[in-house]
Amino acid sequence: MRKKQVILPPNPHILIIKLAGIGDLLFTTPALRALRARYPQARLDLLSTPAPAGLLKGWDVLDNIMVLDKYLFDYPKQMLTNPRNLLRLRPLWQQLRGGRYDAVILTHHLTLPFGRLKHQLLMRATGAKWRVGLDNGHGWFLNVKVKDEGFGAMHEVEYNLELARALDATTADTRLTIPLTDEDHRQGREIFYADQAASAAIQPVFAMHPGSSDHGHARRWPTERFAQLADTLYHDFGGQLLLLGGPEETERLQHQEIMQLMRSEMPVRSLAGKGSIRATAAILGMADLFIGNDSALMHLAAAMGTPTIGIFGLTNSVMCGPYTGRSTEEYTQVVKLNLPCMPCSYRGHELGLLAGCATRDCLTALGVDPVAIAARRLLRKRLQKKLESKAAQ
User: Pick from 375, 376, 366, 389: which is nearest to 290 by CA?
Assistant: First the structure.
């Protein structure tokens, strides 16, 4: 798959570019760990967007995290209507030049013409000798090329590992990493147990995320299905339900709607907008099962080792399904229909229909039963492991 492999000097300066969301940034962590293991004396820097960058703050694998609000530069029109945005690039340009990088790794597919231009400029700004990236036929500015077979030819984690391998860096540990601190765990426990001390004894703990990012609203399974699923799981296992999400979930009243639609006596709380994203990761680590749409929280749950069910419709589950680097049967499960039009976004070398079709049959026609079956399978394995662990103590 690689066209060229480069071995860097013992103490190289390496920059990794990932200008995307939380899940996409997590997908780079196995590759970053591989680079650090191969080049322990390296200066390893990351260029990310502001929101997800804080997720890896303090990680000993990275020396420096720089941020760029890429959303100010997504379209050429933004440059024309607000030229001052270009002035915001000057400090970053100076940082990139001052980094004296030996190699820069671009972890993006070269899909859109304007995106290719931006990525080329960023890589050229570093002055790096080696420019590593995925080549779909448009990577003429790369001199270390990894063939891009298209979205879903392999998981994005595996694409990133191929990019690291092009610099002679490999790892057997392909788990996603969230470097949580003791304070993150403390905040997570504080939110988890707040005003609900008695609920700590109610097991198992189900975490659900019925939402998604604003630009991914088409990925949402119908709200009433989450309510029906919660009732089904309560009938089978008892337990309690945590509804997770950002502040936007409160504004949409989505959690309140689920609570109103539920018919069982299952204890349920909405933790929407409570705590940082790292505290949310700590909360997910305390759950026995996570069920949610294709979103950042799905990837956080998988990274925390919580059994994870991802509900997929129009997006590409092979490309960005929940990833643990371990046995998927024990830790993760993708639930989706098998319609001939799926996936309709991130397919081949095209972005496709990011908002899906008008009817979105891939999600509206997906009933509760397939998700409940997957949930029972993963939860029983989880509960069995907890019993075995307790017996061994």
Answer: 375
Separation CA 354–CA 344 (nearest Å): 7
**CB-CB contact of 14 with 8 (8 Å):** yes
Largest distance between two CA atoms of the chain: 66
> What tokens appear for 225 in the block?
């299905």
d(CA 210, CA 244): 8
In sign, the C-alpha dihedral spanning 152, 157, 162, 166 is positive
Q: pTM of the entire structure?
A: 0.93
CA distance 174 to 159: 12
- pLDDT, one tens digit per residue, over 301-318 is 999 999 999 999 999 999
Backbone φ and ψ for 194, nearest 5 degrees, come out as -60, 125
% of residues, the chain, pLDDT over 70 = 90
The answer to whether 289 and 306 are in contact (CB under 8 A) is: yes
- Three-state DSSP class for residue 43: strand
Taking the C-alpha atoms of residue 299 and residue 28, their distance in angstroms, rounded to an integer, is 12
Q: For 186-224, what is each residue's pLDDT tens digit?
A: 999 999 988 665 566 689 999 999 988 766 788 999 999
Of 258, 384, 382, the closest CA to residue 308 belongs to: 382
Strands (E), the chain: 13-17, 43-48, 64-67, 103-106, 130-135, 144-147, 205-209, 240-243, 268-270, 289-293, 308-311, 332-335, 345-347, 350-352
The total number of residues written for the chain in this structure: 393
In 3D, which of 115, 133, 134, 33 has the Cα closest to residue 73?
115
Distance of CA 10 to the CA centre of its chain: 31
